[in-house]
Amino acid sequence: MSGPNEDNTQLSSHFFGDLLDSIIADVASECHRIAKLGIDRNLEEEEEELRLSAQARARVADPSNSGETNNKYVVDIFGQTHPSVASEIFECMNCGRSIVAGRFAPHLEKCMGKGRKARLKVTRSSTAAQNRYSRSSPVSTYSPYSNSTSTNRLSNGTSGVAGEEYSNGTYEEP
Amino acid sequence: MKHSVNRPPTPDAADDQGKEPTLQEIINIKLIESGEKERLMELLRERLMECGWKDEMKALCRAYIKKKGRNNVTVDDLVHLITPKGRASIPDSVKAELLQRIRSFLVSAAL
């Protein structure tokens, strides 16, 4: 004889299946609608985009093109011409350096962490922060910053802090 | 009399007395009336979106539509396409979470 627990399990599975079926129907209906209306990444559009980007890449790579459509002298609808590399200079909000606009994207890649080097930069600074708070200073009597944690952040990590002022208990004894 | 709408005749009161609602039906009604069914659906929808299950299903649909041509596909086709794969690819943690909540509801609603 099946006890109440087994009934419960079976019932739960039944209702879970019910919910799932509803959601599957929703997803199918949504995809169907998107497909029929031809919105949101139409396949022909994608293929068209791929084709155009391949074309553009070929045009850029081909040096002999500068005869007819030199980028510098192409005129836009307002009658303005633009240099091929944007030349405005502004400040990167992540590292604070002055960057040429045309080089901003590659700069951000390195600066914000797509690459191996950028990620190393980040972990180096965070482990330095950890070391600041957890290691006791080799010069144990020197502690002008021992009272408040906020002034410690001003120091650039070259001075350790005397351990006894910290109550979070994460420092190790020398 | 002209019937503009096809519908089955209204059942007599006499017919219903033999049938008692099953346990499943009772619980279903309780789920809906308390609003818990709606909450569970939203929870499941959210979890499935977070784990990428919805995107996987949409990709399957898109591939199928691309193969068949978008004017030859019905909602039914897509449902039959997704259902077996959809049921099989639910992450265990999501399933466990939902089952747990349903079970708690059953326990709390049981008289």
UniProtKB/TrEMBL annotation, chain A:
Residues 132-153 have a biased composition (Low complexity). The keyword Zinc-finger applies. Gene3D superfamilies: Classic Zinc Finger. Pfam families: Sgf11. Keywords: Activator, Chromatin regulator, Metal-binding, Nucleus, Transcription, Transcription regulation, Zinc, Zinc-finger. One of its GO terms (molecular function) is zinc ion binding. The keyword Membrane does not apply. GO terms for cellular component: DUBm complex; SAGA-type complex. Residues 122-174 are annotated as: Disordered. GO terms for biological process: chromatin organization. It is found in: Nucleus. Belongs to the SGF11 family. PANTHER family: SAGA-ASSOCIATED FACTOR 11 (PTHR47674). This is SAGA-associated factor 11. The gene is LOC18590990.
UniProtKB/TrEMBL annotation, chain B:
HAMAP family: ENY2_Sus1. Belongs to the ENY2 family. Involved in mRNA export coupled transcription activation by association with both the TREX-2 and the SAGA complexes. The transcription regulatory histone acetylation (HAT) complex SAGA is a multiprotein complex that activates transcription by remodeling chromatin and mediating histone acetylation and deubiquitination. Within the SAGA complex, participates to a subcomplex that specifically deubiquitinates histones. The SAGA complex is recruited to specific gene promoters by activators, where it is required for transcription. It holds the Pfam family EnY2. This is Transcription and mRNA export factor ENY2. PANTHER family: ENHANCER OF YELLOW 2 TRANSCRIPTION FACTOR. The keyword Protein biosynthesis does not apply. InterPro entries: TF_ENY2, TF_EnY2_sf. The keyword Transport applies. Residues 1-21 are annotated as: Disordered. GO terms for molecular function: transcription coactivator activity. One of its GO terms (biological process) is transcription elongation by RNA polymerase II. GO terms for cellular component: DUBm complex; nuclear pore; nucleoplasm; SAGA complex; transcription export complex 2. Component of the nuclear pore complex (NPC)-associated TREX-2 complex (transcription and export complex 2). Component of the SAGA transcription coactivator-HAT complex. Within the SAGA complex, participates to a subcomplex of SAGA called the DUB module (deubiquitination module). Keywords: Activator, Chromatin regulator, mRNA transport, Nucleus, Protein transport, Transcription, Transcription regulation, Translocation, Transport. It comes from the Eukaryota. Coiled coil: none annotated. It is found in: Nucleus, Nucleoplasm.
